[in-house]
């Protein structure tokens, strides 16, 4: 192929155009070209192409592209171009382009909360986000250790929000609906040229930044309602033993004879008072003493932030750009925290006796429980702590499709504001931070599972099939055990610093209208009569999903990534050519299938 580019002023034949714009997916969509301004230090009217496309068409001005096509193609009939040219997810005007939520609500007729999740329209245009200018910094505080003033102000602010009319954009109901609309099919990718494809901010690299922005505005709205400019949210510090039970301020139905604004009737009654949260919850309570539950929780946090969060995509989740379907035509990987401790807490709090596990157990209703916001405040803190570890690979995404992904919210002044991922990476500019109530090393940092004693292990048996001998996709209606060839053995410390060994489970197709979880164990060689637990080094982690699908197709695809570098050391198996991978279905896996299992070396960027 010649290195010279086809001149954009020359007419293309239909065949040449189709070859030049090779589709990213197997779908064909209309392409809507926009010349709207996007705040950035660089030119905002550039079409960002995948690397594979840059030899064919350079980054060009959208308007020049249409002119250069000589009139043969227009924005209305450039079939497939939108799929070929990667662009960031862009939320539409949320007050004018919105539909009733249906995704992930299996029992719609008996749904406890409304599916009409669209925000009210005040007839305002979308503004560009401006960073706060105040000198003070809001300090989020551990929910279990709040002062009387902090707790009283928080209760008072939530009550003020509940007292607003339901049609007010700041009302308790409308703030809860934000999660429903963005997570359960309320908005489409119409501003990116894909009006038939929903936006889904879970199960990809949008998870952390979306929820950070959501809580940013929620916190500022609460502060304004009670005229407290330094008001800050509490966070559920489930990564510390004292903070693992749900805080007392959420428990009482009434306070001094008045309704407790922090109470929610739709919680799991068996998990509320004096119960330690289970950060690896699979729908069943573990019959273990509290000290062991603490150990398992701390090991889960360590696994989410260190072992399985060893590179950008493993922590944040897989790439998700305009034209990608959240349901059937892509399989971005879910991030380590999202699939791990985040999902476990949602299910642990939600009421399993309700039709859709309301409130916390389903995305459409989660925002109606005040505990949702303190849970996600700690999830947001996990991003901060992960970054502050400054380990190789702990670097935020730099892809323009992540940096320029955007959402629209009502701010504390009732103005519509468009915000971008790139503007939420620096907490200093957002004027909030977290109070840490201890100067000691976080307990989860010292919770790497202990190395397995060789005396408790047995030799590898040869009766396990290799992945080459298994016909994929395979249904996970029973335990699946396979041997997977590793790309290298006994790597040096320097090699391990430059690349993580990662187990990839791809093409996970599951019924996304129900809670799904399976666990992953690697090189489990315990002698007969000994059993592996989530506290042990052989436990790689789990894949878990809260209901969130498009009702037109209840089946959804995803992938999962699990770090193996430390696991292989801790199980005394770093020198073995094959890793034995065991998938154990826990709940909702009757019709779940797995498309591929493999191990790769993933290069990591230095901090």
Automatic annotation (TrEMBL):
Q: Which UniProt keywords apply?
A: Copper, Disulfide bond, Metal-binding, Oxidoreductase, Thioether bond
| GO function terms (MF aspect) | catechol oxidase activity; metal ion binding
Organism for this UniProt entry: Ambrosia artemisiifolia (Common ragweed)
Which family does the record claim for this protein? Belongs to the tyrosinase family.
What is one Pfam family matched by this protein?
PPO1_KFDV
Entry binding sites for Cu cation B: 342, 346, 376
* The protein's name in its UniProt record: Tyrosinase copper-binding domain-containing protein
Sorted alphabetically, the Gene Ontology BP terms of this entry are: pigment biosynthetic process
Asked whether the keyword Transmembrane helix is assigned, the reply is no
Q: Which Cys-Cys disulfides exist here?
A: 98-118, 117-180
Annotated residues for binding of Cu cation A: 179, 202, 211
Q: Which domain of life is it from?
A: Eukaryota
Q: Where is this cross-link: 2'-(S-cysteinyl)-histidine (Cys-His)?
A: 183-202
According to the record, cofactor stoichiometry and binding are noted as: Binds 2 copper ions per subunit.
